[in-house]
Design goal:
Elements lengths: L10 H21 L9 H12 L9 E2 H11 L5 H10 L11 E4 L17 E4 L4 H4 L9 E3 L6 E3 L8 H5 L1 E4 L4 E4 L4 H13 L5 H7 L10 E3 L2 H9 L1 E7 L1 E6 L5 E7 L6 H13 L6 E6 L8 E5 L5 H11 L3 E7 L1 E4 L3 E4 L2 H42 L1 H10 L3 H12 L3 H9 L7 H26 L1 H19 L6 E3 L16 E7 L3 E6 L13 E2 L9 E8 L3 E6 L3 E6 L13 E2 L12 E7 L7 E6 L3 E6 L11 E2 L9 E7 L4 E6 L3 E6 L13 E2 L9 E6 L5 E6 L3 E6 L13 E2 L9 E7 L3 E7 L3 E6 L13 E2 L9 E8 L30
Parallel strand pairs: 8-17
Antiparallel strand pairs: 1-3, 2-3, 4-5, 6-7, 8-9, 9-14, 10-11, 11-13, 12-13, 15-16, 18-19, 18-21, 19-24, 20-39, 22-23, 22-25, 23-28, 26-27, 26-29, 27-32, 30-31, 30-33, 31-36, 34-35, 34-37, 35-40, 38-39, 38-41
Helix pairs in contact: 2-3, 3-4, 7-8, 7-12, 7-17, 12-15, 12-16, 12-17, 13-14, 14-15, 16-17
Length: 834
């Protein structure tokens, strides 16, 4: 028994060396493309194998199993699955911008369906793929032995087509990865041609011809900053967004229609993700998804609910799904000596130009050598034709073919190739016309030799040939750009973009709790109803403010100390119908003991001219609205107050409306607003109404056309009175009677309403009711009014607000039977919250 040699090996060194060998094998022979032809080894072997089999674009298809078997047997000693997957991908038009394989059969889909088995599918080279292989037989590239030395395969393709950029590449090696996006062929050709003419061109100049990637699935690239970074350094990030539009459907609803997806997004998985988000309530407003895609393209229809806001839903889809994705560009490729390098755009183009120069040089040398050999043969034939009789005599006198060849070479100073050509010449070539053809061919070959020699001697000629090739490629295969590039800084969806712009009610209690609920949480009830529970209040915690606004409105919080704070309506925490809310001090910087006395929604600081303010002691003040457009986090002074006074009411004003001030003892004063001159924020204002002893202001509003003054007492009595019954008086007077009060009652609130308005009243125990203004009787100034809300013992009206009547409802004509019982209050006469 022979004993082998035992060699001690350091395991750390052995592992390091073995892993480096493996890593380099993966980098060079599997995962990374060559910068010259843009192909990985398996792709190159597939294309060359099909070329070698004669599978041109105008030839019949062959079974993919036959192609895979040929590639495996000759060049690629790996699994057939790897080869077939690579072959199928080269035929998938949603993965490859310019498919290199013309497939017949099921090659998968954008939904992620796999290709059929290779025994069912057929393929041949696409016409554009032949541009990668043209001239390969002219010694344009180096060949090397295959895995067993029985076959020669190309190390790179001639690549007349700039494949690396137009089709991109993606691959994960060991310790590195490449991700090169596809581009438009015409734009790449223009950029290369420009660089040939302007070798010192900048990235900005190249981007004028090649503005950015062009993905096979289209989509929209947001902003050019990531493209500039990628083209300048070889690395960058771009944001790709699906192309979608909003279509109007029946009954006022809308559909979102997606026609283009971001690159490599699976349509089926996208549908599943949207369905999951809807189920998890992360996206609201989607009723159904319908896939109407066909052979003409993608059409994914997202059906919205009737009350959904399509723009907000679309922004949510961009935020939470793959309808918007980030594509990381890493332009890593193998350069000279199989060295992986991250290359900026200019370097990629320069490598392609150098490769084409080398290919054209080698092709020219091949053709020159061929032309010279042909010229040499033609020269021999001309000599034979010029001495035809002597040549024939020499051949006839020779005993064998070899001796005839030697005799010709010796007698006429011919080379062996020339002598063989003369011996092989047919008798038909001795005719006069045939002799002329030989002479003409000789002249053409001499011209060709001169042309080829000039190309080799003149670099500009080579570059001009490259440009001509690119122009032909652009004309033959160029198409329109599919991916649009829009001038947006980034694809970030702000939180505000995701907030539905809907009507909400915001409530604030006197203990400083705030919340918002959708305005449709409460249905209108008949006048005199008991209402439903609007919130759960703590002991001695009563609702003070109720405002109707949109989620995108700014809220200005005015306090009893004359300060103002600012908050977006959507920043107010959303609560259930009975939730008590969140302490307001968590949202704005209120001082200890400071109370919010007025909450004003402002949709746009350009819509109104002034803010009109009124205090409990009857002071009024007018200030330009724009002075409150930006409020510091710790607030601003809105009005200077005297000792014992408090700011209570603030209204948006155009500057020409009359002012109405109503007191707790039932007096109302109407005066011209222009009697109050505009003042700066710190000013204290002027006297608005003269108050009787013990009286105070409980309401301030502005006169509107065709409107009434609504007055509600603490005991739930109320009425509307036409504004025509209130004469215009001077500022700082006492006003006129507006309601006859019962003993122990006083006015709780007063505001101007239209008959079509909907009123929302809330009591100090948190009971809320919505009624139509038209359901409240319109009576004279000196009457007592009617019951507006049926109060429980010990309860009283705390606040009211006005909002437009909901479309399609008419609570003014509701019957008593239509006032539904709330689910959480058995025996109540309110309405169920929606």
């Amino acid at each position: 028994m022979e004993i082998g040699l035992v060699r001690p090996v350091d395991i750390v060194k052995e592992m390091r060396d073995a892993y480096l060998d493996y890593a380099m094998s993966v980098i060079v022979s599997r995962a990374l493309p060559d910068v010259r032809d843009g192909l990985k080894p398996v792709q190159r072997r597939i294309l060359y194998g099909m070329w070698d089999m004669g599978l041109r674009h105008n030839q019949p298809y062959k079974k993919c199993a036959r192609i895979v078997g040929d590639v495996l047997g000759k060049m690629h000693p790996h699994g057939d699955g790897a080869v077939y997957d690579a072959l199928a991908r080269l035929a998938q038009e949603w993965n490859i911008r310019y498919p290199l394989v013309d497939g017949q059969g099921n090659f998968g889909s954008v939904d992620g369906d796999p290709p059929a088995a290779m025994r069912y599918t057929e393929a041949r080279l696409a016409q554009i793929a032949e541009e990668l292989l043209v001239d390969i037989e002219k010694n344009t590239v180096d060949f090397g032995p295959n895995f067993d030395g029985s076959y020669q395969e190309p190390k790179v393709l001639p690549a007349r087509l700039p494949n690396l950029l137009i089709n991109g590449a993606a691959g994960i090696a060991v310790g590195m990865a490449t991700n090169i996006p596809p581009h438009n062929l015409g734009e790449v050709c223009d950029a290369i041609s420009y660089l040939i003419d302007n070798p010192e061109a900048t990235v900005e100049e190249l981007m004028e011809r090649l503005p950015g990637p062009d993905f096979p699935t289209g989509g929209v690239i947001l902003g050019a900053e990531g493209i500039v970074n990628a083209y300048s350094t070889g690395k960058g990030h771009i944001v790709i967004r699906a192309k979608a539009h909003i279509e109007e459907a029946a009954r006022g609803a809308y559909h979102i229609v997606v026609t283009e997806l971001p690159y490599q997004v699976n349509k089926a998985r996208l549908q599943e993700r949207i369905a999951e988000l809807v189920k998890e309530r992360k996206i609201d407003g989607i009723r159904d998804i319908r896939d109407e895609s066909d052979r003409n393209g993608i059409r994914l229809v997202i059906i919205l609910k009737q009350d959904a806001q399509p723009k907000k839903v679309l922004n949510q889809l961009f935020k939470f799904t793959q309808m918007q994705v980030s594509f990381g560009i890493n332009m890593l490729a193998l350069t000279e000596g199989n060295q992986p390098r991250v290359l900026p755009l200019k370097k990629v183009l320069q490598h392609y130009i150098e490769h084409r120069r080398e290919v054209i040089r080698r092709r020219t040398e091949f053709e020159l050598d061929k032309a010279r050999r042909r010229a040499h043969i033609l020269e021999g034939l001309k000599i034979a034709l010029d001495h035809l009789d002597a040549v024939i005599q020499t051949i006839r006198e020779s005993r064998t073919r070899d001796s005839a060849r030697n005799n010709l070479m010796r007698a006429f100073q011919l080379s062996e190739e020339q002598a063989n050509a003369i011996l092989e010449m047919q008798l038909g070539r001795l005719a006069a016309l045939e002799r002329k053809k030989i002479e003409d061919e000789y002249r053409e070959v001499i011209k060709l030799i001169a042309e080829l020699e000039d190309i080799l001697a003149n670099v500009r000629r080579v570059l001009q040939i490259i440009k001509q090739d690119l122009a032909e490629l652009k004309e033959k295969y160029g198409d329109a750009r599919r991916t649009r590039i829009v001038a947006e800084a980034n694809g970030d969806i702000s939180a505000e973009d995701l907030i539905p712009d809907v009507q909400v009610l915001v409530t604030v209690t006197d203990r400083g709790y705030i919340k918002r609920v959708n305005a449709d949480t409460y249905r209108p009830q008949n006048r005199g109803g008991r209402g439903i529970r609007g919130m759960t209040t703590r002991d001695q915690d009563v609702v003070e403010h109720l405002v109707a606004c949109n989620t995108m409105d700014d809220l200005l919080f005015f306090t009893d100390r004359g300060k103002v704070y600012q908050l977006k309506a959507h920043e107010v925490p959303d609560g259930s119908r009975t939730a008590k809310g969140l302490p307001l001090v968590n949202l704005i910087s209120l001082a200890p003991g400071e109370q919010v006395t007025s909450v004003l929604p402002v949709p746009d600081f350009e819509d109104g001219e002034y803010l009109l303010m009124a205090t409990v002691n009857g002071k009024v003040k007018r200030t330009l609205l724009q002075e409150f457009a930006t409020v510091r986090s710790n607030g601003l002074i809105a009005i200077g107050l005297e000792e014992g006074d408090a700011l209570r009411w603030v209204k948006l004003s155009q500057g020409d409306e009359d002012v109405l001030l109503t007191t707790a003892q039932g007096q109302t004063l109407r005066f011209k607003q222009n009697q109050v001159r505009p003042m700066g924020r710190p000013a204290s204002g002027v006297t608005g109404i003269n108050l009787a002893a013990g009286d105070r202001v409980v309401g301030m509003d502005l006169v509107r056309a065709d409107a009434d003054l609504l007055v509600v007492t603490r005991r739930g009595q109320g009425k509307r009175t036409s504004l025509d019954e209130y004469p215009v008086k001077g500022r700082a007077t006492g006003g006129v009677i507006t309601i006859r009060l019962r003993e122990g009652d006083e006015v709780a609130a007063a505001c101007v309403v239209n008959p079509a308005d909907t009123l929302t009243l809330i009591t100090r125990q948190g009971i809320l009711i919505k009624v139509a203004a038209a359901s409240i009787s319109c009576l004279g100034r000196a009457t007592q009014g009617v019951r507006v809300i049926d109060l429980k013992p010990g309860d009283e009206v705390a606040a009211l607000t006005v909002e437009p009547l909901e479309e399609g409802s008419n609570p003014a004509v509701m019957s008593a039977s239509e006032a539904l019982r709330p689910a959480d209050e058995p025996g109540g006469n309110g309405a169920v919250a929606q």
